[in-house]
Amino acid sequence: MCDCVRAADNGGGAVPDGVCDGKCRSRCSLKKAGRCMDLCMMCCGKCQGCVPSGPYASKDECPCYRDMKSPKTQRPKCP
Known about the structure:
There is one protein chain. The two termini are 18 Å apart. By secondary structure, the protein is mainly alpha-helical. The longest helix has 12 residues, at 35-46. It has 3 helices and no strands.
C-alpha cells in the first residue's frame, strides 16, 4: 500500500535526508512549486516519512498525513 519509511525503522530518529523531498516532489508534481511542497514537507516530517505515493494517491495510505488538520479551520493540512 504505502512505501512509508517510519522513524521507528531507523532507531526512532528523524526521517533520513531526501526521503520527504522525493515523496513530496511526487505528491506535488501537478501543483505549482511552493505552498504544496512546504506543507507536504512539514506533514512528511511529522508523519515519520509517510506521504501518499503520488498526486492522485489516496490519503488513506498514510493515516497520520490524512488526519492532520489546520488548528484554525479544521480543514486538512496536508496536500
